[in-house]
Design goal:
Length: 136
Amino acid sequence: MANETLSPMTDEVAHLRQQLADTLTHLEEHPEDDSSLSLSLYDLRKEVRHYDAVVSGEISSFQVDSLADIPKVLVDVRRARHMSRVELSQAWGLSEENRQRLLADEENFYAGMSLAGVVSAAIILGAELKGDIKVE
């Protein structure tokens, strides 16, 4: 794995860990905010644990229960592949405008894609898509 690949991913987890540390510091300095920040702290810890599990390979299969889950799952697949957003944008051949959108807010970028775009992302990421379409 090249250092260029690790650096952006390390930056992502460093950002999550910094948010966690900032929240803990705030709680220590402002105990009166405990109830409002406890949930944030819980969410941040959960997100860091999930990130670590994805990157380590502990999680390698991702459940999609609805179309709304797809953006988060594509982010997880990219992380599991140890691919940075820059590397993904290059492999995908994105225009500069779309590259900037991907870099700025990856989940939102995926959320605005067509089904063909989702399939294209999955192919580039080497993900296998399986599933059911249910009529109720």
